[in-house]
Structures are given as C-alpha cells and as structure tokens.
Amino acid sequence: MDKLGVFLCTGCGIGDGVDVDEVLEAANEKGCTATLTHECLCGPEGIDAIRGCISENSLDGILLAACSERAKAPEFAPLSEEVPAVFRTAIREHCTWSHPADAEGQDAEDTTMLAQDLVRMGLARLSGMKPVEPLQEEISDVVLVVGSGRAGLEAALTASRLGHPVTLVEQGSKLGGLLADQVSIPPEEPPYDAPVPNPVPGLIAEIEADDRIQVLTDTVIAKITGQPGQMEVTFEGPETIEQTIGSIVQATGAKPYPADNLGHLGYGTSADIVTSYDFEKMLASGTIARPSDGKKPERIAFIQCAGSRDPDHLNYCSSECCVNTLRQVAEVDKIDPSIENAVIYRDIRAPGLMEHFFVGIQKSAGMMMTRGDVVGIEANGRLNINLSNSLLGDNVDVEADLVVLAVGMVPSSADGELIRELHDSRHQAEHSESSQVREASAKRAEELKDHEGTEILNLEYRQGPDLPTLKYGFPDSHFICFPYETRRTGIYAAGTVHAPMDCAQSAEDGLGAAMKAVQCIEMAKRGEAVHPRSGDTAYPDFFLQRCTQCKRCTEECPFGTINEDEKGTPQFNPLRCRRCGICMGACPERIISFQDYSVHMVAEMIKSMSIPEDYEEKPRILAIMCENDAVPALEAAAADGATWNPWVRVIPVRCLGSTNIVWIAEALSAGVDGVILIGCKYGDDYQCHYVRGSELANTRLGNVGETLQRLALEPERIKVVELSHDEFDRVPKVLDEFAEELDEMGPNPLKGF
Amino acid sequence: MATIPIEHSSDSRREFLRLGGENAMHCYQCATCSSVCELAPADNPFPRRQILLAQWGLFDELMGDPGPWLCHQCNDCSVRCPRDVRPGDIMASLRAMTVEKLAFPNFLGSLVGNVQKSWPLLVFGPILFWVVLLGLTTGFGEVETHHGLVPGPAMGQYFYDALVPHSLIYIVNFAAVGFVCLALFMSGTKFWKLMGDKQKRSGSFIGALIGVVIAIAFHTRFSSCERGVPKRRWGHFMVMWGFVGAAVASGFAVVFLYADIPPFSWFFALPFFSDIGYPVPITHWNKWLANISAVLLVVGGIMLFANRLKRGDKLVGQTTAFDRFFLWLVLAVIATGVLTEVFRFVVPVPMAGLVVYVVHLGVVLSLFLTLPYSKFAHIFYRTLAMVHERMTGGK
C-alpha cells in the first residue's frame, strides 16, 4: 500500500499523554499521505472524518492510532469496506495509559517517543500489505458423519435439518453404536428420577425416513484426499463409492476398556466377575444369573472406576459409568427386587440434575453404597470384596454373588497416534542409516502391528491417516476455546470419541459438531477461515521457486495443512489452513507470506523503530507477544493502571510460532538491546490456540543461542516466557525484570554499527 | 486394620427401616449433619458415622454408641441435610432400636418395640389387672380401712382408699418398681460395658454423674441446640419437673399416712411436718406441690403434644409409634391423675371416680412396667451416655 493515512485519536487521555504534534511529525516523516486527529475517533463524527479523509486523499491503507483492537471493534469495522488495509495500534493501552508522565520511571518525552514508534511500526506494516482476494472455490454441501451412535445419529439429523445432504457411514451392519442394544438410558429431562427408554431406535427410524441422509452400513473409508469443502472420499463396502464431501463429523465413539487388564479387580479369576457391557446383555435378556452356575445372585456388587482414574490404566474419569451403574441398579430392581445391589465407588459422579436420579435410585432400589478402593476379590463360593479407604477408615468386606466392573471408555481415536508411530517405525526400519535405529524401529513396529488396519478416516495427509490426539487419545485441539475442533480443519469430533460423556451429552455433542461442520462449509464458500481467526480471508502464499524442500513447514504445521510431493515440495491446501503463520515462522527461506502478514512486514516494523545510539539514556527492548493471550493480558494490566518499562516496544503476532528467527537477527543488528518473546503455556496442558506454536518458537530459539555467542552477544539477550491470559498482574513485571537483566548486561555491542 | 463385614440384609436392618430409618439410605456422607451439630463431640462427631453404620447394617457397633443418646434431636441436621436424610430421625430410630435390643428380658423389649400391634395389651392389660385384683380382694364392697369400716362405692360412699386399699397399691407398685430397677440395671450394665469397650473411660463415676444431673436439671444441653428446640425444651422441662414433683409429693403422702409408725414419727417433730392428719387437706403444702406438679405436667405435656402435631416440619421430625405410645401414656397418666383429684373434690360421683381411679392406676402401672422398654428409658440411657461422655473427656 502506498497512500497511507494516520488517524490519531486524542480522546481517552491520549491527547494529554503524548505530544500530538511530534507524533504526527513522525508519521509525516515516514511518508504518509494524510494525518488527522480527533478527540473521539470512534464516535460518528470521528468515523465520518476518517471516511472524508479516505475519499479526499484516495487512501489505500489507514492506521488507527487509538485503542486496542479489542475495543471499539464494531465502530471501526465498517471502515474495512472503504479501504483495503486497516491496521490498529493501541496507543491508549500500550502507551498513554501504561506510561503516564507522572508515574515513577516514566517521562513525557519517552511516552511520546513510544507513541512515535508505534505509529512508525504501524505504517511499516501497512506499507507491506497487499489487498486480499478471498478464495473462490467450488464447495460441496455434503456433511459426512462417521459412526452411528447417539452422537452420529444426532449429527446426521442436525446437518440434514440445516438443509445439507448427509452421508452416514457405519462399519457395522446396523446403526446405533454402543447404545444399540441397551435396555434404557439415564433420564434426560425432569424429574430425572428413573431410567427412560432408549431413544436410539427412534432416531434410526427418523434417519431412515430422511431423504437427505444417505446411510452406508458395512462400509469403511478407504481414502480421503483434498481439503474441507472439496474432500474426495472413497468408501469401501458392499460397493465402492466415491463422493465429494464438504466436512466431516467423526462420531466413532469409544471402546470399553479391555477388562483383561483388570486382573487386580479379579477379572478372569471367576466367571462371576463381568463387565458392565456383559451385564447389560444380561439385563437385555431379562434374566439375571451367575455365569458360573446359572443361579440367581443374592447380591450384585458394582465396582466403579474399573480402569478409569487409575494411572496404570485410564488416567481420566470415563464420566458416564457412575450414572450408568445407577441405571443398571434400577433395571435389576425392575427385573427382581429381591436382588440386593451394592455399589462400590471412589466418588459417585452424578453431575448436575443427575443428582435427582441418584437420590431416586437410592430411594427406590434401596441399594447399599460405599466408598472404597478394591484391595482384592476372593472367590470362596461367594465373592468376597475387600476394600480399603472406606468411609469408616477401616477395611471392609463386601460379599456378593456377582461382580459388575463398570469399565471405562477408550476413544476410538486413541489408535491414531499408534498407527502413525507404526508407519513411522516401519519407515525407519527400512530407511534409517543407523543400524541401531533400524533395529529399534523394527522392534517397535512389531509391538504395534496389532494397530494395522485400525485407521478410521484414512486421510491422505502428510501427517498421518487419522486425527492427532492429546495425552489420553482424544482428538481435541483446544477444548476450552474451540469445542468440537480437532487438529484437522473441517473434521469435527463428537460423542465419546471427543471426550468421555454420557448419552445425553453425546446427543448435544453430535448437534454441536454438525453445526460446526455446516459452518465450515458455509465459511469455505466465502473463503474465510473457520477459527480461531474466524472470517479471515487472507491465506499464505508459497513462493515455491525458492523452496529448498526442507520440509519444515510440512512437519511443523499443527493442522496438517501442507502435503508434500515426492520430492518434498510443499503442496499447500488453503482450506485446511488456520492462518497461524507457523509455517511462515518455520521457513528458513522466508518464502511463505500472507497478504497482510509476512516475515518481511514484521522485519520492516522492527527496522522502523528509532534506536537512540546513546544507550545510557534510551535502551530499546523488542517484545514479540502472542496477540491471543499475552497482548490481551498486557492491555488488561494497562486498563488496571499498571505501568512498565518505557523502552519496551511490543509487536503483537498471530502466534509465537510464526516468529521467524530473522526478526531476532534484524532486531539485534539494528541495535535493540534485547528481545523477549511472550507466548502461551505449552506442554500437555497447552493453552496455545494453534496447539504447538509457543512450543515450536521455544525450540527454534533454543537453537539461536549458539549463533548469538558467535556474534559475541549474550544468549540472555533473548528470553522466552510462557504466560496465560489471566496473568495480567504478571506481565508488566516480566517486562520490567527483563529490562533490569539487560541493564546489568549493558548495551548491545552492535548498537550504532 | 480390622475388617468389618458389611451386613446388608440382616433382620436388624429391616428392624431399623421399620423404626423410621429408611431415609438413611439416601445419605451420601457429606457430613453436613456432623458439622452443624452443636452437641457432637469434636473428636467423635455424630450423626454421619451412625448413619453410615446403619446403612451398612452394623447395628452391633451402634448399640454401644453414646452418640444417639447425646443427641437431643434439635433437628438442625435434618433441616440442613441436602439429601433429606433427616439424621435427627435416624438418631431417634437408633435410640428406639437400642432400647429394644438391650432390653431385659428380651421379649418385653420386642413387645414394647412392636407397640403398633401390642398397645392394647400394654394399656388395657394393667387396667384389667387392677379390676380383677380389686374384684378378688375387696369385691367392691364394704371394706376395713385406715378410718375404720367404711362403705364401698357400690354403697354410694367415697374414699379412694376405701375403694383401693393402699396396701394393694404398695404391693403392686413396689413390685413393679423392683422389676423395673432390675431390668434397668441389667440393660444399663450391658450398655455401660458396650460403651466402655469402644472408648476408655477415666475419672470418677459419681463426680461425672453429679455434673450430668445438674446439666439435666437445668436442661443446659437443650439450650445449646440452635433451633427447633425452644418449645420442646420448655415442654420437656415442665414435664420432667412435674414428674419429679409428683414423685416427691407421692413419697411424702406415703410418709404422712404412716406418721404414727415409729420409723417415720420423728419426721413430725420437724416444723413443716407437724399437724398432719389423713386425708391431707387441700391447703397443705404437699398438696400444693402435687398440684403445681400436675399443672407443670399438663402444660408441658400439651406443649409437647402440640409440637408433635406439626407434621412435615423438619424441626419436629417424624413421630413413630414408639414416640406416640410414650406420649399418649404420659398424657393418660396426667389426665387420669388430675381427673381423679377433680372427681374427689369437685364432682363427687363415686362410680365415675372409681373408674377414673382404676384407669389411672392401670396406666401408671403400664408406665412403670414399660419404662425400661419405652421411650421413657431415655432417662436412663441418656444419663449413662452423658456420664460416659464426661468420663471420656467430653463436656
């Protein structure tokens, strides 16, 4: 963009906090076409003034030097229809609120210099921006639902009700999933006091009557290629079908945790110790009998958390077993009230209104409940269950004739990572240069060979055939901020594959995921990103002539956006992209650029900072901060009256993972005394919107230390900090501490060269 | 650690459910009850643990537990319970169960425990006994009395001791009291031992007992309960002191009767005891004592009864047959006692007086005989539990 305008708001204390003339002068020095100040830029008069200035000067880019982009967004939004490039710099939060001249360590001159730098950086960014042409692709309306349990059925019906054609694929011969043959389900509406009939047969009938839903049973997915909106799916079943679909709801459910692993709960030592799934079959048959002798049990003991919440088995709560057990107790009571039921639990988890169900069953069935950890189960005619950690404090014994283990759930996606590992191991076993690696890989491949053929989606993605998963095998990407989202754009998880959940939650989850799937299709039609940069139409452009096939982008993209051809050249799929810029940060050749965000643009921003040569007076610190968590935290601190070191210059980035090492080099060679990168928490409980961005940035910078030493620079001049959104009280301290550390190191020796 | 067998389906558990314990099955052990209780000892709080033991059917543990007896059923716990378990009622059921289980002889415990079915026998049995006894001895005719030969009621005359010779009352009631003492002693030693087995005691029994008696005299425990109690406190206070006053007055009445017998005669040298003849005049202080006691009993009894009528109020708690029998019996003793006096002085109708008097003697006998097995036994168990508490470091 060449014809740029700077609009400086003087309201909210900005006009009093900085020398307005000097700020405008800095803007003019950078060659902007027009400048304007207004005491209330966001008001109707201010907006009209901007509009007038745009048309008068035929501006193609405007810099709103006012408040944070989180403030007054609806007021300024209409401007983007009048001018191709709008950039906002938060003078209010980053400058005047946080650097009042009367505060300790602050000075009016420094505050004005900070505002000048913010304006210079904004103009530098704007001048690099190009107009965005949204993608116009042909998009399929079809929603593919994989799996036909409660979540899958609800998802198919929801997508159909929203007017989309649906293909429902089920590997088994009939629909219904784990619930298909269950006698009842826990209540889903008031008064929540007794089991209710299984809704699945009704849903199946509804699906079969729906013309928009195509049902494929006995069918698996052989291959999926392409990108959301244009996925080519090959189904293999009674016949091979090829179909183009728009988005996918994966509702493939969970598997019962293998009871063979539950020897400590006596499984396998007696035929009368069964799983809750076996017991459900007994309930469905209408007769309750001990498998060993066919006699009616006098007492049934239900043991909760069989495998769940156990670090040696499933280190999470399977969420539905407690309430399901209560339901089974109610069913036993219906079949034969003379049978006693004892429930052995760690905590009964009957959340929300299920409390009424819990009380209802206790009242009607009069069962006995006790907290306890099972020490062992001894079979001596009856089954003697010894418990420690009982509510009395002492060990207690419970005798029963039949023991039902409420086994936990393993998501069907849990195989995904292992399949990936199996494929990798096989590849290494054949291709590795080291014989040691070849042997180890061959051994691992052998261990994992049972996972062969457990692929569900069979995605032809460079990063593997199924959804990547988190710690426990669930395919979430960021469950707090983006429910249903997986790490594959356009593929949404629903039901028990998504998280452990009960029947009612699965229904809701299927509905929610179907709405996301439809949203994805609709946004793809407009060329917009679904999330987290919802509505963003810019996308990365690869200047492949300069690509060295290093594969960093294809490996590092957390969303599997980029495939490779045989030579390793990246093949970008814009509709899979979430616009985080991690590929841009990874690329050593700097050939990946968005229309409005690139390595070059940020480098220009860094270069545009004025760096006083006299360190004693004016050191400079560059803070590259995540715009999703760290910057909002900083702005919250400013709103809260916090102040911080005036030498800091903040550049918000889409994700810390988009940080290219070049920026660091650029900053240090320009004489900046130190660079601090503040991103999200990473690790198992990561908070990064883009899953791995902050972690990748940290890894990349770990490699920079050596380079710095060669340049005779202290590695401590670069610091990476993890920070969460709510730590607004910490972020000013982080900046101040870094400033002090730099002060001890002295000036950047490259300053002034 | 000891392993405790959980008894889920024992007869005791059924018994407990019958005595009003069914709500114990909803308890999820949040311990709100124990935390709101003002009376629960800090190191051994009730009623959470008692509810758990009851859920599991471990009644042997509960029989020797002082907890249910330390509870004065203010029902703070029942009001606060998030699960409508009504721990106050559970404690009441446990008390009823303890009385029944520790009864001597056992069958009488079961008889009174099943009062819902056995009440006609328990009430009409003693009345019938008196009718038969009087028929056999005096024949309701002319009788030799203290005052010489007087005509019987059938002849239109009117002296209670002419109708029912005092000697008969002594024989019957002293025998009953002797039996009650034996029964209470047997049950009490069992209870005392059970409590001692679970918790070691130390210090003086007598010292602890004196403290407990003072506490009971002023009802200090009742006053530490936060709510639900004021009405019951004063009702109970009046009934208790009414019984004490009535007992003292009856004691002196006996003494006055035998003023001329040497073992008692020295009394009458004392200032208040001189100048007494039989019948004792209505203006005499012993009559005052007796009448004031009667008023306390009537007012207190009505207060307690009226309180129990508020059904569905959690602060009142559930009224079981066990409670009802005791309350009715006490009210019957009070009512017939007062009527007996009224008939004598105000409405001299000889036949009606006789009937009321015989009914009175019957219900008094019933009250005596069922004392170790009815709710009345709480006098004894609660006192022992409070002594035990003091001897194990409690307040």
Question: Layout of SSEs?
Answer:
The complex is a heterodimer of chains A (753) and B (395).
Chain A lengths: L3 E6 L4 H4 L2 H10 L4 E5 L5 H14 L3 E5 L7 H4 L8 E5 L1 H7 L10 H21 L14 E4 L3 H12 L4 E4 L14 E2 L10 E2 L2 H9 L4 E4 L3 E6 L5 E6 L4 E5 L1 E4 L3 E3 L16 E3 H10 L13 E8 L14 H15 L4 E6 L8 H12 L2 E4 L1 E8 L1 E7 L6 E6 L1 E6 L1 E3 L3 H17 L3 H13 L43 E3 L9 H23 L15 E2 L9 H5 L5 E3 L5 E3 L9 H5 L5 E2 L5 H10 L12 E6 L3 H10 L8 E6 L7 H9 L4 E6 L13 H10 L1 H7 L7 E5 L8 H15 L8
Chain B lengths: L2 E3 L5 H11 L10 H5 L11 H9 L2 H5 L3 H4 L5 H5 L6 H15 L4 H8 L1 H23 L5 E3 L2 E3 L9 H4 L2 H33 L6 H14 L1 H5 L5 H28 L4 H4 L19 H25 L11 H25 L4 H21 L7 H14 L4
Antiparallel strand pairs in B: 2-3
Helix pairs in contact in B: 1-7, 3-7, 7-8, 9-17, 9-18, 11-18, 11-19, 12-19, 14-16, 16-17, 17-18
Could you describe the 3D structure shown?
The complex is a heterodimer of chains A (753) and B (395). Helices cover 32% and strands 20% of the residues of chain A. Chain A is built from 22 helices and 32 strands. Chain B has 395 residues and is mainly alpha-helical. In chain B, strands 2-3 form a two-stranded antiparallel sheet. About 2% of the residues of chain B have low confidence. Chains A and B meet through helix 11, strand 18 and strand 21 of A and strand 1 and helix 3 of B.
The SS-based structural class of chain A is alpha/beta
The low-confidence runs of chain B, each spanning 5 or more residues with pLDDT under 50, are 151-157
Largest sheet of chain A: 5 strands, parallel
Helix- and strand-based class of chain B? Answer: mainly alpha
**Could you give the order of strands across the largest sheet of chain B?**
2-3
Q: What strand order characterises the main sheet of chain A?
A: 9-6-5-13-24
- Report the order of strands and helices of chain B: EHHHHHHHHHEEHHHHHHHHHH
**Helical residues, percent of chain B:** 55-70%
> Radius of gyration of chain B in whole Å, from Cα?
23 Å
| Radius of gyration of chain A, taken over Cα atoms and rounded to an integer in Å | 31 Å
Question: What is the percent of helical residues of chain A?
Answer: 25-40%
| Subunit arrangement of the protein | heterodimer
Q: Which runs of chain A of at least 5 residues are low in confidence (pLDDT < 50)?
A: none
What's the end-to-end separation of chain A, in Å?
Answer: 30 Å
Percentage of residues in strands of chain A: 15-25%
Report how far the terminal alpha carbons of chain B are from each other: 30 Å
Give me the number of helical elements of chain B: 19
Number of E-type strands of chain A: 32
Which two chains form the greatest contact, residue counts included? Answer: A-B, 26 and 20 residues
